[in-house]
Specification:
The chain is α+β, with helices and mostly antiparallel strands. The protein folds into two domains: 123 residues, 7 Propeller (Methylamine Dehydrogenase, Chain H), CATH 2.130.10; 83 residues, no CATH class. It has three helices and 19 strands. The chain has a four-stranded antiparallel β-sheet with strand order 1-2-3-4, with no helix packed on it. The chain is extended. One of its GO terms (cellular component) is nucleus. Pfam families: WD40. Keywords: Repeat, WD repeat.
Length: 267
Amino acid sequence: MKPKVTMIAWNQNDNYVVTAVNNHLLKVWNSCTGQLLHDLVGHADEVFVLETHPFDSRIMLSAGHDGNIFIWDITKGMKTKHYFNMIEGQGHGAVFDCKFSPDGQHFACTDSHGHLLIFGFGCSRSYEKIPDQMFFHTDYRPLIRDSNNYVLDEQTQQAPHLMPPPFLVDVDGNPHPTKYQRLVPGRENCADEHLIPQLGYVATSDGEVVEQVIGQQTVDQDEQGLEPSILDGMIRQLQLQQDQRIGADQESASSGPQNGEGTPRRG
């Protein structure tokens, strides 16, 4: 097999460079001399995640499609911690991305099964307040393009960024209780009656008819007593400025010939 580099990362103080190779090895190099210092052995599949610790220059995290997550001491060429992402009844889940928290006490990973894995010190009590499955009801909905080639949501015919805040649902599309709906930005101050989505039956691409969230809230923000969105206000202001500028250009263009009618012409 021809060796290929799949990922490169510098450590925190730039003294070392770590490369992931498609033969499942990680190599630690001296960044000044280019000397190979260590071969890190442990992964059984390709690695596409290399993350350096935010302040400890010795620590590097690696994760790959084999479901393994390693914490390495790259100065010694040793692994200090190992986690395996085993999913009950489904085998392992490939790890697609990892990030450290700014304080270096936690790191979070996402896998091929849609899970968010959070590792760190302390207890997990704060994470028990939210349901295990959280999706927006608009996730994976089809998009279309209009005659101007703009992207629209197929169901509502609206631009996705102008749609109201989505509802939180589980993996089967069932909406969560209202206390969880307030976790969605834009729904923090909604009354309970505005946090209950409209349900309906929708045909899937396989022809199966399932019950899903089909409606967004229809009550205007003014009627709810909510503060208007700052982003929406900026968009409206920019549009107004553009309309005024276009109107001024058209007015000056139309007034030009009128002023020129009174000028004498050479015979």
